Amino acid sequence: MSEETIDGGVSPQGYVDLGYAKPDTQREERTGVAEVIYGAGKTADQIAGIVGALRGAGQERVLITRLDADKASEVQGLLANRDAEEFEYRDTPRIAIVGGLPEPDGDAYVCIACAGTSDLPVAEEAAVTAEMLGSRTVRLYDVGVAGIHRLLSHADDIAGASSVVAVAGMEGALASVVGGMAKCPVIAVPTSVGYGASLGGIAALLSMLNSCASGVSVVNIDNGFGAGYQAALIDHACKRAAERRG
Amino acid sequence: MSEETIDGGVSPQGYVDLGYAKPDTQREERTGVAEVIYGAGKTADQIAGIVGALRGAGQERVLITRLDADKASEVQGLLANRDAEEFEYRDTPRIAIVGGLPEPDGDAYVCIACAGTSDLPVAEEAAVTAEMLGSRTVRLYDVGVAGIHRLLSHADDIAGASSVVAVAGMEGALASVVGGMAKCPVIAVPTSVGYGASLGGIAALLSMLNSCASGVSVVNIDNGFGAGYQAALIDHACKRAAERRG
Amino acid sequence: MSEETIDGGVSPQGYVDLGYAKPDTQREERTGVAEVIYGAGKTADQIAGIVGALRGAGQERVLITRLDADKASEVQGLLANRDAEEFEYRDTPRIAIVGGLPEPDGDAYVCIACAGTSDLPVAEEAAVTAEMLGSRTVRLYDVGVAGIHRLLSHADDIAGASSVVAVAGMEGALASVVGGMAKCPVIAVPTSVGYGASLGGIAALLSMLNSCASGVSVVNIDNGFGAGYQAALIDHACKRAAERRG
Amino acid sequence: MSEETIDGGVSPQGYVDLGYAKPDTQREERTGVAEVIYGAGKTADQIAGIVGALRGAGQERVLITRLDADKASEVQGLLANRDAEEFEYRDTPRIAIVGGLPEPDGDAYVCIACAGTSDLPVAEEAAVTAEMLGSRTVRLYDVGVAGIHRLLSHADDIAGASSVVAVAGMEGALASVVGGMAKCPVIAVPTSVGYGASLGGIAALLSMLNSCASGVSVVNIDNGFGAGYQAALIDHACKRAAERRG
Amino acid sequence: MSEETIDGGVSPQGYVDLGYAKPDTQREERTGVAEVIYGAGKTADQIAGIVGALRGAGQERVLITRLDADKASEVQGLLANRDAEEFEYRDTPRIAIVGGLPEPDGDAYVCIACAGTSDLPVAEEAAVTAEMLGSRTVRLYDVGVAGIHRLLSHADDIAGASSVVAVAGMEGALASVVGGMAKCPVIAVPTSVGYGASLGGIAALLSMLNSCASGVSVVNIDNGFGAGYQAALIDHACKRAAERRG
Amino acid sequence: MSEETIDGGVSPQGYVDLGYAKPDTQREERTGVAEVIYGAGKTADQIAGIVGALRGAGQERVLITRLDADKASEVQGLLANRDAEEFEYRDTPRIAIVGGLPEPDGDAYVCIACAGTSDLPVAEEAAVTAEMLGSRTVRLYDVGVAGIHRLLSHADDIAGASSVVAVAGMEGALASVVGGMAKCPVIAVPTSVGYGASLGGIAALLSMLNSCASGVSVVNIDNGFGAGYQAALIDHACKRAAERRG
Amino acid sequence: MSEETIDGGVSPQGYVDLGYAKPDTQREERTGVAEVIYGAGKTADQIAGIVGALRGAGQERVLITRLDADKASEVQGLLANRDAEEFEYRDTPRIAIVGGLPEPDGDAYVCIACAGTSDLPVAEEAAVTAEMLGSRTVRLYDVGVAGIHRLLSHADDIAGASSVVAVAGMEGALASVVGGMAKCPVIAVPTSVGYGASLGGIAALLSMLNSCASGVSVVNIDNGFGAGYQAALIDHACKRAAERRG
Amino acid sequence: MSEETIDGGVSPQGYVDLGYAKPDTQREERTGVAEVIYGAGKTADQIAGIVGALRGAGQERVLITRLDADKASEVQGLLANRDAEEFEYRDTPRIAIVGGLPEPDGDAYVCIACAGTSDLPVAEEAAVTAEMLGSRTVRLYDVGVAGIHRLLSHADDIAGASSVVAVAGMEGALASVVGGMAKCPVIAVPTSVGYGASLGGIAALLSMLNSCASGVSVVNIDNGFGAGYQAALIDHACKRAAERRG
């Protein structure tokens, strides 16, 4: 570490320097969303340390993604009292929340649609992330295009959303069909569901990038977090617009 | 060439040896479909030589695929009288036909659907090939999933076909949606229509191979010929079944 | 879930909404084949729930693919009495059948050929799927092209089939050789058998997509199910043709 | 074409059937944005035909993308009088506009940032598309990260936008840096600017999909159109939110 | 250039230093085969300079590969008298020979088999290279596996060869079938013949690397030269063995 | 299985039909080398069954490759007495031999060179295979190009060989350097040794396919067996040549 | 452009804003090397504008890379008098220099080695770039490993350099061999020289990234500029070290 | 092994021949850095043998990379007394050191920057390697571009370094931003941190190869060793330059 680092102290530069990490305490002010912890590839000690630093710096809620159940228990055991008490773990999306979910704000909602039952973990990661950032959500699960009547019977849910997160593996066709039905931005999430030429989700990713429907953008494979995050940013933009008008 | 080759003569082994090519005069008997000429990478001289050999060996109709307009003229100029007279060239699918198309046989039909206007050359290659092999065809063009009502309004055409050839570039989602609507085999043809991450048709190819609909098989990128050919083979199988019953 | 969903009830839209899944009860009517369960990535609970919903909606037979032996036991334990009694598991293709195989109908048959002993699981998945959908089958195993006399000695089996499913890993050359021998459609299944530059089956997949023989279409790597399914659809088309004629 | 097609007539199903194309006259009602023409792979005749059909069906403005200058002249020559008069072509983004750009609506703006001078055509495609759909735009060109002070000096433009379109080739790092500075969604557009291991834009595409900043989604390589389109959809969502509030 | 280089002089280190090239005058002694010139990416001036240097250093015959017809004329015009007189150009394999082909030595022969007419340029490059290095050749052209009787009727040519060069594009199955028939090494040459998923010859390359037949090795796509070269090295090894015995 | 199969009997067509396998009893006569068993993906039962069939049909020696130690014990336990006694297992190359290695025949030798210690398993697979087919071998291990004096000090071993098998992972440069030193064919074996951008051996494979040295051909990644096999075929060709002369 | 931009003026933020470009006038101070112009994808007008801005801001020398001869003439015609006079174009590396090359400073030198004659354009780009940044150079051309004595005879040139730039296409083995001989950093430049499985330089790139020699780092395919640049930075570091000592 | 090998003896050719390995005892003299052991794919016995041979040949310090903790214990147990005593293992970088780290020499330092906490193992491998070769180091950890103020607050550490090692996974943007800030060479290390479209580090690798900043070269994915090694070689070059001047 360079010499001017004060271990564990809140640096005036807008981050805490823990040596192994520099949690960004300026992020909420800068981007409207507080620092989130990506759990993969970090030890339980490191995660607990970062949670402590963020909460110590005044952050109300902390989201930890990509955390398996065993490491979650370990992290919880390492946290300070109040943090440990407010620690909640959800199995399907492999997410931990410290400080609880906020109340959704406003009447807009993000619609989370997924093609098959195997896509649920990713869809739930998107849904919980959006909720953590203040959005209301509506879930449409197992509405893949092989039985397109299932999707068409929910046309109103899609038409009324502020954004749609479309989650699908295999050929990822859901995104294009939804894209042709929606008035709002569609954020497509390819999943690694499939085998062989699905190439771990590359097939769905390429499919979504080449969507013949126009309002579709794409995040990384299995990145439910990123899609839920951007959906919430759209809600934030809408709220700012409404406030300017209101 | 090995010594036992008799130049240009019909070998008793079931092919004509032209040195640069050995047209297969046994193919119709073996597979039910006479030899077809793949025009790319052959000179006009070679193509004309092969046409001559096949017609000389008694083949009634010859199909030449992947032939550009200039080479087609050159080939026509090199053919013997009767062959030149019966030579017909079609621009969109870049196909030449010597000996004319046969009358379709029976009331079954192959449905050729394509996603966009840019897919027409491939769709037409499929249609003409199927017609050359005796099938009746119904064409549904520009029915991509971004405006899915266009496809749904033709549900009867799909329901009644003996097979559907689904032609699409970009994300190739058409194949999955059709696959969920059809009773018959769907043969999917990815096209190279698109740019960037379409990777020259690889995106559509992978998409179709990973279709969440079950009755979909796939041929090479832009291989309208192969799809039309297999669709006709299905018709041939149906005819044999009907004849056994009849 | 959107509000109009009635949990577990048969929706008039043609599916049952279980929250985590929406089994398609309209599929048989629409496509001629009832809903099939893809077992990978679903929990035993979810699978048992879907089986129950389909059987409850009147579906006679249910096929579950990609199910390992342990999860199969677990599923069986969760099923209702009659469903559990009629549950049968097959190790090699990792398939479960609820409600038994139907009697094959008619004298046509699907020929399932595979290149090597290591390809058996995929070949059996194709064979059992086709049988489940009502087709008769003939199996030709370990007939790879390195000893081509093994294949040639079965030329009659290939010539007489309504379709051939050609299963091969490594270089996948079997499909092309069979394609040059057959009168009927050849559905090629690349397998992940091989190592190094086989790239998990991509080499065989590309090989089959580029087959120099004309009547060959391809399904995903290791997708015996998809090939058996399409072979059965061809048989269905033949039966419809024969019935129209008869 | 299937029999029920009335050539050139407005079908009650919500499209015009031109045989080679079925322009979607229901799109504006369904998605809030009228049909756009993708010019690549279509002949001038086809493009002119589609423009005519859309304008005939009452569409006020038509955008044609991926149109080179020569084909643009040809199209203009083929159009009916009023359409030809209102036809405008822009060289850099290779876009034609029929019917003029609308006045931007509201005080929100889309910020279009690009990394280098060679990215201008894509950035301009995004900007004009967003303007065509009613958005106001602010352009920040040549602000790549190798001289990051150029970007940092425009922090206010980024902070105030409703969305940022970040356009970059080579390593595409601009998207991540902008993502760390913005409160709003960032739509990243990889470009094919670069050589060698840029793989025609794949390097930038992968980079953007893996952005360590959270609010970034991605469109296809060189797809300025798609990014501008989604940026405008976000503005539309904001307007709807403001109207609900207002 | 480093200072100790004597421009154009024969360096005692076993090469001539021309600045832009250092032709290897020691190669024949070291490897049994004299220096060959790869014509692609060199100017006519450079090629002529290297020919002059090699001939000046006593090399009897010079082979130039990958030389198009126009550059060949230009090179010939730049050569010294005797070299220009002994310069011969062959169109199909795009090869130039200075000093003529040697008489084949011994009764062994290399069998060059290719799958289709479009593979001829590569097959001829292999054949002429082998002949240039002293081998006798037998050509079997257009013996692809879609009509396998054509290949089987030449089983004796394959059985009697010292090595077989198997040239094929598309799926490259020829190599495996030949590999199952031959007693000798098979050198497989994938070609770029094909389209779409042939990926410029990658499909055939992977296919050949994964051959289920055991005695098959592979060279680069379209590298007829390399295959002919190695076939000749096998003949050289056989000659040395025979001489040791004789 | 098709009906004409006689289970376990030696079919007059030149193979034994075991249902799950058809061991090729005609291979030695046809190719000069008896059937070899690829152990991966076969059960111990299947392997033992094939060994029994081959030995029962008179094959003296059987080689089993890609066999891990546990399965080897299991196979040995399942073999008939004499076969089990003559069963020998080698750990490094994961090979089993039934019936012992033959005496090498003649004074020629195959030189097996490998770049690093981690390449030993593949190099030993090549060496034992060549020995099993009657070749004499010389091993040069850990002679990678980073310390090229190690290789240069063995120049005589390379110069005197009938062929060189060059085994290397990482960048695979050994093949090119050996190719520039050898008079005989070089068979290059890329290995999966490496990490990251070695892509499981693809880097070494591509490197070897693009060797700037001319007499180099390549086998699949980690395919020591294939390289040893082809090296032995070259020795066989040399012996036949010497016998013709002698 | 955002409103605060003063067209063409030197902004106090350390760049000139030309609208289409923001040349970085702070770069020399920050990185020790003044702004360089990447010529590809820029119009002659744009290039001339940037040259003018940089020279106007006091930059003595300007390097323009990837500039073809025709555009170079055009640029020269558009420059102001003094700039046009000091404009020099070099064909092989396709580089233009405005303001001349500086005198090399110090006795250190960069050694530029390339494998073959076809690699000269890239090698020269590296050499001229290093010279432009003040380095002395020694060129070793056509020293590929197929005739390794050519390289070994220049061992002293390599041993004495401050860094070696190793330029090679095809399999790129030169980098590893040089890496095993050098005391200094080796900067490897893969080139697109080759065909087929060279994949436009990817084979050489992967090879160099996996070098078994330890002191090798790599730049993009054909990026002679980047390698020369980094070689010069090493010289700069050495000079600073010497000055601190001196 | 070829016959002239004396097992375990120090060969006069500059290496020790252990049969399974030929440790290079000439490397320090030739390259300035003694032989290093790559631990992956070697047995503990082999590693201990090589350590013994190198120390026996007089090498003071031995570095072993890619060694997991269990194998490290095993190696230590197999070493001779003095070697075992001087054996030290570090968990994070998975490195063992025999003979201790040297004192850093001079006042220059290598700056090691990494983007995130998950990159620490690779960053530490780089740091320890550089220290082992005599360099002083400064570590900047978790300074990724999503919170760029963390990096900018360390601008002086970067400005003063002799080289910067920039370690990052995901999109690897750190290298470009650092490249735009540094006066010295930047050696970029992509890591395999990430998921989905990070493709095991390929995304970061491509990103770094395409850096828009000029002084950046790249090593293999996760190759901290290679980067630390080259950084130290730059320090060595600086020391030689200073000594020449001093």
Automatic annotation (TrEMBL), chains A, B, C, D, E, F, G, H:
GO terms for molecular function: hydrolase activity. GO terms for biological process: 'de novo' IMP biosynthetic process. It comes from the Bacteria. Pfam families: AIRC. Transmembrane segments: none annotated. InterPro entries: P2CMN_synthase_LarB, PurE_dom. Residues 108-240 form the PurE domain. This is Nickel pincer cofactor biosynthesis protein LarB.
